[in-house]
Amino acid sequence: MSDTTCDVAILMGSKSDLATMKPAADVLKELGLRVVVRVLSAHRTPEQTAAFVREAARTGTKVFICGAGGAAHLAGTVAAHTTRPVIGIPIAAGSLQGMDALLSTAMMPPGIPVATVAIGGAENAGLLAAQIVAISDPALSKRVDAEREARLRKVLEADAEVSAKF
């Protein structure tokens, strides 16, 4: 598999974002998707970022997940270089603890959409990416449905355990 051959590409602006971004990769791998994870910066490696995005889209990447803190321009930069879906994850950092990243990620200009999850919401970003890919993959759709059903059962089990105590 080349560096860009995957179903979902996960990009982060800094290696320090890895702990926040890992749940996206974990859920995607659990669902059987091919994932590439990279550290690429909108500001420090703009040419490499653009080249990676174009090549990844050319080789079949279906969705990009981008995490960044502060000004959080990575998701917007990626979206500017592809028409594939881009999901932004604002990273909690600095004095604003991710609020600046949330606004930077969500407030994209018309014509360059970025789906935005909660601050630190990598698991949901992974699930959303899987749901997008599942639209054209019936087997993946069944796995996504089963994953959702497992979460439902877990909550109902917790409900039964708690309600039995009262």
What are its keywords?
6 helices, 166 residues, single chain, Rossmann fold, 5-stranded parallel β-sheet
Q: How much is the average pLDDT?
A: 96
Helical fraction: 40-55%
Q: For the terminal residues, how far apart are their CA atoms?
A: 54 Å
What about the largest sheet?
A: 5 strands, parallel
CATH architecture label name:
3-Layer(aba) Sandwich
Provide an overview of this structure.
The protein is of the alpha/beta class and 166 residues long. It has a single domain, classed as Rossmann fold (3-Layer(aba) Sandwich), CATH 3.40.50. Helix content is 48%, strand content 14%. It has helices at residues 18-30, 46-58, 74-80, 99-106, 122-134, 138-163, and strands at residues 8-12, 35-39, 63-68, 86-90, 115-116. It has a five-stranded parallel beta sheet with strand order 2-1-3-4-5, with helices on both faces. α1 runs parallel beside α5 and α5 (122-134) packs across α6. The mean pLDDT is 96.
